[in-house]
Amino acid sequence: MAKSEYVFGLHSVQSLLKTAPLRIEKLFVLRGRDDQRIQKVLNLAQAQGISWEWQTRKEMDARSGEGNHQGVIAVAKPGQLQDEAFLYELLADTAPIFLLVLDGVTDPHNLGACLRSADAAGVQAVIIPKDNSVGLTETARKVACGAADSVPLVSVTNLSRCLEKLQELGVWLVGTSGDAKDTIYDLDLKGNIALIMGAEGSGMRRLTREHCDYLAHIPMCGSVSSLNVSVATGVCLFEALRQRRL
Length: 246
Prior knowledge:
By secondary structure, this protein is an alpha/beta fold. It has 10 helices and 11 strands.
């Protein structure tokens, strides 16, 4: 049986309490903290019948390592990847939809960083192919800093077929490519979109590229030819967020 893990931070723990309370075994809360934000978390825990234990800052810091626990840590059973059925249910209940597709990212550090950026930018789900892609490893979870529990990670057997289905459901596919004519800043990233990022080094696969409604690149001014995929993902996601908040 997989060992329990720590989920820390107000946003991450609150999201876990709302979306997967059965995973939570126990909460640790910073002794002396009784502000409105922490009380909201405790009210959710009480409603779910989840107990908590008050701890000192030293004890909390030791549990979270280098992470910022913000006064609350959940002991939880490891989360699971979601399937395509979950994705299509999400589309039926959510508008406008904002998705991130990672086409073959194999480095767990990059996956974790992409999940963290996706959470911060308001992405509702991240999609990865079942094969030739890293899953939710311990390293990916650690780098994600709780985002692996707040942003659903959907593993699909056939990415090409999934992209076709998304298009049928009214989602525009925006791919990233260094040789694209338009920049990411030229495109309209509002409405129902799925941003597609390619693998480290090789970029998007041919079939993935062919399914895209639009292609865009990130303008570069220096001597390097490309960005790390997690950095590029952050740039594109936050341009979309900027537009969607206007």
